[in-house]
Amino acid sequence: MEVIDTQFADQISLLLQSPSPLQVQEYFDDLLTTKRSHGVQVKPTNHYGKGVYADMDFEEGDLVLKDPMLVGIQHSSNKIDCLVCGCCFCFIGSIEMQIGRKLFLQGLGGPKDVCFNEKLELLMHEKLELPYSKKFPLPGVINCPGGCKEVYYCSKSCAQADWDNCHSLLCTGEGSKSLNNKALSKFIQHANETNDIFLLAAKAISCTILKYRSLKAVYDKEKDKEKNHVSDVLGNHNFSLLLKAWKPLLMGYKRRWWDCIALPIDVDVSEEDSFRMQIKQLAFESLELLKAAILDEECLPLFSLEIYGHIIGMFELNNLDLVVASPVEDYFLYIDDLPEAEKKEVDEITRPFFDALGEGYSVCCEGTAFFPIQSCMNHSCCPNAKAFKRDEDRDGQATIIACKHIKKGEEVTISYIDEDLELEVRRALLADYGFICKCPRCVEEDHSS
Ligand SMILES: [Zn+2]
Ligand SMILES: [Zn+2]
Ligand SMILES: [Zn+2]
Questions:
Q1: Which ligand is nearest to the CA of 159?
Q2: Where in the chain are the domains?
Q3: Which tens digits make up the pLDDT trace of 143-179?
Q4: 322: closest CA among 74, 26, 118?
Q5: What's the gap in Å between 449 CA and the centre of ligand 3?
Q6: CA of 433 to the centre of ligand 3 (A)
Q7: How far is the CA of 69 from the centre of ligand 1 (A)?
C-alpha cells in the first residue's frame, strides 16, 4: 500500500463514494442549463444509477443531444495522420498542410525521394497550392501559449480554454506550470509507449487541481474580506473545495482499472491474476512519473494509486470514442467527382499525393474522451438512439441522433456493442461492462431459446 493511500484513506473513500440521487439531479440539471440543452434530462433510476430521458418528442433522424467532452485525447498513433485543435479537435491548417505533414512524417527514416520530399515540405509550409483546396478552408494554426510545440489550436479562445482547463500543468514548454518539465516529458513518453489512457487520466487530474486552485483563490479572497474571520484550524475547507472541484468526476461510474479491464483474448484464464497484477504495476509506474511532474501538496488524495486506478477504470468502462471526419477525404472525393475533362488536368497534380497516401487518405481523427451526458445513457440491444456524426459535426463533441420515434418522458438508450450480434455473443461482450442486459429484445430472445 502506498503512503498517500493509507494517510488519506478517509478522503479517498469520500472521493469514490457514489453520488446521491440529489447530487446527480443537481449536477446534471446545472450542466444541461449552462449548455442550453433542452431536449433531455438526466434522472436517477432505481436499477442502474442514472439514465437520460427525452424532454420532448423526437422523430427518427432528429438530433437528440450534442455533448461536449469533459476531457479527451487524440490517440498517440493518430497524431501523424491528423493535425487537430488540442481543445475542440477540429482539423486545422489547410488541406496542403494536412497532406504534406502526414506524408513527410510517414516518410521520415524511409527511402528518400529528394524531389518528392521537397514538394512535401512546400505543401506542409503552404507554399504549394493544390487546385480547389480553397473549397475546404480550415482554421489557421495557433501555437500553445506555453510554447511547447506539441499541441496546436484552432483559435486563441481554444488555446486559452485548454490552458486554463488543464494544459498549463501538462505543457512541456517554457511557460509550463508543472514542477519539472523533464519529469513531465518522461511521464508522457511512458504513456505513449504503454497506454495513452494515462494521458487522459493526467488531464482529468490536472483539470481537478486547476479547478481546486481557482475555487481556493475565490475562497481566500472572500475570507480576507471578513474582518473577524475564524481560522480553519483543521484545514478542512481545503478538502471540501477539492471535493467540489472533483464533482464532474464523482458523477462517472468507476471501478479500479486492473479489476475491470477485460482479459485480452491471448491471455489464458489461468494467467488472469498475474495479468491484473501487471496492469496494476503499470499504473503504479505511470503514477510515480506523474507525481514527479505535477504533485500538488493540497491535492494529495488525487495522487493515490486508488484514485488513479479508478479514474482510468472510469475511462475504460465508459469507453467513448472520439471521432472527427477528415476534410482530406472530402477533398479527394471532390476531385474524383470533377467533370472528366477538368479532372484529367487536376489529377496530374494531385495524383502523386493521393497515391502516396494510399488507403490512409481518409483516416479520421481518433481518440478517447469522456462525455458526461452520453456516459449516463443506458444500453439497449434495441436502442432508440445512436452516436452518429452528421456532415456538419466537425469537432470532438458527441452527437446523439434518434434512430426511431422517441416520446417525451421515454428513456433514451444507445447500444454499447454491435447490436446485430446474437444473444450469447452480446451477453459475453456486455459482461465486460458488468451487467446482464434485460432489454425487451434480450428478454424475448431468452424466452424463445
Ligand atoms: Zn479549437
Ligand atoms: Zn503547451
Ligand atoms: Zn439487450
A1: 1
A2: 35-68+371-448
A3: 999 999 999 999 999 999 999 999 999 999 999 999 9
A4: 74
A5: 14
A6: 13
A7: 13
Query: What is the pTM for the complete model shown?
Result: 0.91
**Rounded mean pLDDT, 349-354:** 93
From CA 217, how far away is CA 64, in angstroms rounded? Answer: 38
Beta bridge partners of 399: 66
Least confident of 29-38, 132-141, 212-221: 29-38
d(CA 405, ligand 2 centre) in Å: 45
Find the 413 Cα to ligand 3 centroid distance in Å.
11
Cα of 385 vs centre of ligand 1, distance in Å, is: 27
Level-2 CATH architecture, domain 35-68+371-448: Beta Complex (2.170)
- Residue 190: which of 277, 258, 289 has the closest Cα? 289
Amino acid at residue number 205: I
pLDDT digits (tens, 9 = 90+) for 228-237: 555 554 456 7
Percent of the chain with pLDDT over 90: 75
Q: Cell for 317?
A: 468502462
Q: How far is the CA of 242 from the centre of ligand 3 (A)?
A: 39
How far apart are alpha carbons 213 and 210 in whole angstroms? 5
> Shortest CA distance to 73 belongs to which of 202, 179, 182, 178?
202
163 SS3 class:
helix
Q: How many CB atoms lie within 10 A of CB 235?
A: 9
Q: How far apart are CA 89 and CA 324, in angstroms?
A: 7
Nearest to 373 by CA among 46, 13, 17, 33: 33
Distance from the CA of 148 to the center of ligand 1, in angstroms? Answer: 17
Q: CA 407, 408, 410, 411 torsion: positive or negative?
A: positive
